[in-house]
Amino acid sequence: MGLITQLVARVVTGAALPKEAENNAKLAEQVLHTPGLIDHHKVKVEAAGEYQGELHYVCSDPRPIGRPTVLFVHGSPGSWASFAPYFLQPELLDGFRLIAIDRPGWGASTVTGKRFPSQLSEQAHLLGPLLNAVYEQNQQQKIVLVGHSFGGSLVPVLAALYPDIIRSVLILAGDVSPALAKHRWYNSVLAGIPRFCIKKHWYHSNLEILDLSTSLYNQQEAMAKLVHPISMMQGTGDKLTDPKNVHFADTLFQKSRLTVQWLPDTGHMINLLCVDKVKAAIVHAYESSDACFRHHGS
């Protein structure tokens, strides 16, 4: 069973970065134990009677005031801690309210239903109450979305579903093409392994990956209508998200102003490997959307 767990950890998510993961775990502990750095919040959710639960997020500034706000959405598997390094960046803390969520069914976010909500549309609808809570806390000022991996696929869906809440979108190594997001053979193999042999988070992660191509296909029309500024960061050495997704994005996001930053010889975990570059991209995402609003008079 231990061998199966190791296999799942490596082939489902490409977890071949133990050093970075270990370092990030230490940073997450530092964030958690630094007095006054973050507050924990929970929002109750229910989706058409099919799912219910509580969504958890951490916030660097709980005051009910309007200020530039960034909301981080993690990949699969994962939690808010995937973005722990950003809560230790003084310039980000000074300039922005930072919020990192646990997606439905991950971390401290609970969700109950007949099955796990593995579709992008399901995750997006469940996150609606959380987004609205943040939007109201922010005095109805729009939010910059930042998503990594599966979260990078989810953030344009969120922007399409809640356009009046979202300011701009930053996609870190995220699939947007249904064809390029097709699962690998080993995901099908893992789906056939008895459920009791696999830890819950690996099982749920595999479900999300198995459903990702169909999820993206179902959201293509909605995403094509996006007019929000969209930025993408992609490593050329990424073995999990095909870099050709960036080229596909040119045809998908034709109504948006798309900005692309290539990261030479960089792998999938750019949220951990390229903190300074992502930090700069966040500032640019906010400033470019601010210029866009001024241009359109909104």
List the helices and strands and how they pair.
Blueprint: H1 2-13, H2 18-32, E1 39-47, E2 51-59, E3 69-73, H3 90-95, E4 97-101, E5 110-112, H4 120-126, H5 128-137, E6 143-148, H6 150-161, E7 166-172, H7 185-191, H8 200-224, E8 230-235, H9 245-252, E9 258-263, H10 270-273, H11 275-296
Parallel strand pairs: 3-4, 3-6, 6-7, 7-8, 8-9
Antiparallel strand pairs: 1-2, 2-4, 2-5
Notes on the protein architecture:
- With 298 residues, the protein is of the alpha/beta class.
- 43% of the residues lie in helices and 19% in strands.
- The protein has 11 helices and 9 strands.
- Strands 1, 2, 3, 4, 5, 6, 7, 8 and 9 form a 9-stranded mixed β-sheet that branches.
- Helix 6 (150-161) links the parallel strand 6 (143-148) and strand 7 (166-172).
- It is globular, with a radius of gyration of 18 Å.
- The termini are far apart.
Q: Stretches where pLDDT falls below 50 for ≥5 residues? A: 1-6, 12-16, 294-298
Evaluate the radius of gyration: 18 Å
Q: How would you describe the shape?
A: globular
State the assembly state of the protein chains. Answer: single chain
Tell me the fraction of residues in β-strands, as a range: 15-25%
Give the overall average pLDDT.
91
Measured distance between first and last alpha carbons = 56 Å
Largest sheet: 9 strands, mixed
Strand-and-helix sequence, N→C? HHEEEHEEHHEHEHHEHEHH
| Class by SSE composition | alpha/beta
The number of helical runs is 11
Q: Provide the helix percentage.
A: 40-55%
Counted beta strands = 9
